[in-house]
Write a structure and sequence with these properties.
TIM Barrel, Rossmann fold, alpha/beta, binds S-adenosylmethionine, elongated, 24 helices
Length: 862
């Protein structure tokens, strides 16, 4: 099995397993290719003991206590005695530690009758304590009975409180609350011996529980309440029971964002194929495939599929997981575990991971502080990771080639002293954009005067080496901060100067300058000896973008170099970039920040993080089918914000990859040329041909603000202040389904170049229309990225967290207010989210909201 093959962990659950699980049973299960077994923690004997106690004492309790237990007395009126050997099949041995314990499904922790709830809590505690004692680490806890829970949610609160206590009983134990995917009365069954029917009428009221009920988000909301009461404990997860008919994608997506550690598949959800073999619908297959792409994929638990046949009684188990019989084979072969064989077969049919999934494998939902390449000099490995991007540099090369072509065809005068177009790569790093600029110039047959500037002295060493070894000394190098650079320069006698300085033979290479009058002896000598002629740049190329576009201070850096640009025709690549935002449910990130990170960083919830978002749900969506965007329709497909942003949002744009393996967010696992070869289109096709996913609703992702370069409002000299780069934006997001917002996902789109000339149609761009588009655009916005810059992986999204999750009811509205702020030293963001409910046609009422979060203390230093 290769390392990209998905592995399913599949367990067997027998609701009425009467006998203790022995090592032989475990052996049989493993031989059949099951990975795990469940086991009830207590026996039917214990159940009978509790029922008889209840039936003996409940009438007495009823006559003496008609009012609420707890408000009238603190003592349990019915006490369940401690467990005896007859009460549990478990012993602390090797077998037990490999089992998933199951809490008795007949209790009712959420019962409105305080006596029933109290007995249920006692049973829960006895079972959890004994399971923990025996060494069980995973316990399934049947979720609250939705049918009998009180309308005011008090039963859920009671349930959550009991689980909170339960978590303290086994410090190494994880609890899985077992919930149906949706709240549907058809799924609510009551078995003989359940405690819930014993609830007395004075507590259950007259409610008619037989009314049919279907609430798609009902069980999710119940889970969310329990999880919140348990303070997002990392030892509390959820097991979701799949129904026979799967509900619409929005509720599936909601569960996808939750810590679903087990998916349970009852035999009743399988259909039979022509030969009588159990099979799942395409929708079920797609759901399972989607969940299997999680960093921690859930286990699958087959329930009610018959007992495990013994391997010692003549039935031969399947030797090989790939051995799901063909129909022909099936005719002469009795598969002892057909449901399991089906799932193993499904496992083998899982589509391979996409390029981005491979690239980010293991780093999904991993929080990283964004880089500050302006103030911190990057390591070579970090640059190396950028350079693996299969899309970004191609797109830059296209943009440069088009800009040069347009310059020539529009007959614009160039700034070079010798009449050549002057191109400068500012923030050149190790030089990939320099290489691309040379390639682009060659491809369009235009000779350019190329400059490359970098302030990182270590990267500068490599630039010099590349100039000697790769670029044939065609590049003039400058070591400087771009904001203090005085621009391209030519001296009368560079040959003599070079000879004088290096004491070497004159060469064709251009001299290199730091650009700093204070530190550069080369510069001093040059300027002292002869007359320097500074000239303008025609095309400035930079890649200073962060995950939110402007968060690595691209606007500030480019403003500082703009005065060197040809004032009439000068072009900046990129031309503009727009930040985008969307409210999301991200319970894992919320728990990681507010439970763990705040321990060491008290302001952890006020820092934006770079993160490969995976276990999230976009709360604002539209169900409308949507035409896949092309570079030219992106602006028109995204709603515009109510914004005080000076520049209107432009069409699209791109960010930097976090590096999970190293402290710097950018460094990543290497991506080989072979990986490059498989495009997302290919893997998408493969996926589509194997398992088709249901159509997902379209997330509402709104433009927050835009920066344009060159900035026409700037004066010809470098700006003295930075106030023009502040931004403020108020965005309205419809929230169709109730949910908890844990923060905002930030993306960006970047127009590298927008051509005014039309592109000739070639074979290649006819096949890939974006190649013929006048705009060359990078995008991390999930709505536009697949069309604009598929497979680009230089940037993961930015996550703006919340200290307290904000609740949104069905059909409400989120109002997000964002600020980009600055002082003389730094730039930072502030954000706030408010929940509103629509009343009537125009009215609305504020339900609550977050405080203003500010990253000022962690601002990006200028
Ligand atoms: C994101 S890296 C891009 C490097 C390279 N162009 C690439 O695409 O791989 C940004 C580079 O800009 C440099 N840089 C950032 N701010 C700068 C400034 N004000 N002046 C000069 N270089 C700067 C950083 O040192 C870094 O090498």
């Amino acid at each position: 099995m290769d390392d990209t093959q998905t592995t399913f962990f599949i367990g067997h659950h027998e609701p009425k397993r009467l006998l203790p699980v022995t090592s032989n049973n475990l052996h049989d299960a493993h031989a059949l290719n099951y990975d795990m077994l469940t086991c009830p923690i207590t026996t039917p004997y214990f159940h009978t003991r509790v029922l008889s106690k209840l039936s003996t004492h409940l009438p007495n309790v009823s006559s003496t206590s008609s009012i609420d237990l707890g408000s009238s007395t603190n003592a349990s009126p019915i006490v369940i005695e401690p467990l005896t050997p007859l009460d549990s099949p478990l012993s602390p041995d090797e077998v037990t530690s490999q089992l998933i314990g199951v809490i008795s499904p007949w209790i009712d922790l959420a019962s409105p009758d305080p006596v029933i709830a109290d007995i249920s809590i006692q049973v829960l505690k006895l079972e959890l304590a004994y399971a923990a004692f025996c060494g069980i680490t995973y316990v399934l806890v049947p979720g609250p009975r939705m049918r009998t829970s009180a309308d005011d949610g008090s039963g859920l609160v009671q349930f959550g409180r009991a689980i909170l206590d339960g978590l303290t009983l086994g410090p190494w134990m994880s609890l899985y609350i077992w919930m149906p995917l949706i709240d549907h009365s058809d799924d609510d069954t009551e078995d003989i011996g359940d405690l819930s029917p014993f609830a007395r009428q004075q507590f259950t009221g007259q409610a008619d529980n037989s009314t049919r009920r279907l609430d798609l988000f009902g069980t999710w909301e119940a889970w969310s309440t329990i999880r919140s009461i348990c303070k997002y404990s990392s030892r509390l997860s959820v097991a979701v029971a799949l129904p026979k008919l799967l509900p619409p994608v929005p509720i599936q997506s909601r569960w996808y964002s939750e810590p679903v550690r087990i998916l349970t598949l009852d035999s009743s959800i399988f259909s039979k194929n022509g030969k009588g073999y159990p099979v799942l619908t395409k929708a079920h297959q797609a759901l399972i495939s989607r969940f299997m792409r999680h960093k921690n994929p859930p286990w699958l638990l087959l329930s009610n599929v018959g007992s495990i046949p013994s391997t010692t009684n003549g039935v031969s188990p399947l030797a090989d997981s790939t051995a799901y019989p063909t129909l022909a084979e099936a005719s002469g072969y009795k598969d002892p575990v057909p449901h399991l064989s089906y799932l193993r077969n499904l496992q083998n049919r899982q589509p391979p991971p996409s390029l981005i999934e491979k690239f980010g494998a293991g780093y999904q939902d991993y929080l990283q502080a964004p880089l500050q390449p302006l103030t911190v000099n990057l390591e070579s490995i970090t640059y190396e990771v950028f350079e693996k991007d299969p899309v970004k540099y191609d797109w830059y090369e296209r943009a440069i080639a088009r800009a040069l072509t347009d310059w020539g065809t529009q007959r614009k005068p160039a700034s070079g002293i010798d009449g050549r177009i002057v191109v400068a790569v500012v923030g050149a790093g190790r030089g990939p954009l320099v290489t691309r600029a040379l390639k682009a110039a060659e491809s369009v047959g235009i000779d350019v005067d190329l400059w490359a500037l970098e302030k990182n002295p270590n990267a500068y060493v490599l630039l010099q080496r590349h100039n000697d070894t790769i670029w044939n000394r065609r590049v003039s190098l400058v070591k400087s901060d771009m904001r203090t650079w005085r621009g391209p320069v030519r001296y009368d006698d560079t040959k003599r100067l070079s000879q004088m300085l290096t004491n070497a033979e004159p060469s064709n290479t251009n001299p290199t300058y730091t650009g700093s009058v204070d530190t550069d002896s080369t510069y001093l000598l040059a300027t002292a000896a002869r007359k320097a002629t500074h000239y303008k740049i025609d095309i400035i190329i930079s890649e200073l973008l962060g995950s939110f576009g402007d968060n690595e201070l691209s606007p500030e850096c480019l403003d500082g170099v703009q005065h060197l640009l040809n004032p009439i025709h000068g072009i900046s690549i990129p031309t503009s970039y727009t930040a985008y935002i969307s409210p999301i449910a991200a319970p894992k990130l919320y728990a990681d920040i507010n439970n763990s990170m705040v321990q060491t960083t008290p302001r952890a919830a006020e820092i934006p993080y770079v993160v490969m978002l995976n276990a999230i749900d976009h709360l604002s969506t539209s169900a409308a089918s949507r035409v896949p965007p092309t570079p030219d329709n992106v602006s028109s497909t995204t709603p515009h914000p109510t914004s005080s942003t000076p520049d209107p949002p432009q069409s699209p744009l791109s960010a930097h990859p976090p590096n999970p393996a190293l402290p710097q967010p950018y460094s990543k696992a290497h991506i080989t040329g072979k990986r490059r070869a498989e495009s997302s289109t290919e893997s998408a096709l493969k996926r589509a041909s194997s398992i088709s996913a249901p159509p997902a609703p379209v997330p509402t992702i709104l433009p927050t603000w835009t920066f344009q370069h060159p900035n026409s409002s700037l004066s010809p000299s470098p700006p003295a202040a930075n106030t023009h780069n502040t931004r403020h934006s108020v965005l309205h997001f419809p929230i169709p389904n109730r949910g908890l917002c844990h923060g905002l996902a930030g993306y960006f789109e970047c127009v590298l170049y927008h051509s005014t000339a039309s592109m000739p149609t070639t074979k290649k761009n006819a096949a890939e229309p974006y190649l013929a588009s006048p705009s060359v655009v990078l995008s991390t916005n999930p709505n536009t990225m697949p069309a604009l810059s598929p497979d680009m992986m230089s940037w993961f999204p930015l996550f703006f967290p919340l200290k307290q999750a904000v609740w949104f009811p069905d059909d409400s509205e989120a109002v997000v207010t964002m600020w980009r702020k600055e002082d003389a030293r730094k730039v930072w963001y502030e954000w706030k989210i408010d929940a509103f409910m629509k009343i009537g046609k125009k009215g609305r009422v504020r339900l609550g909201g977050s405080e203003i979060h500010s990253s000022e203390e962690e601002g990006c230093l200028m």
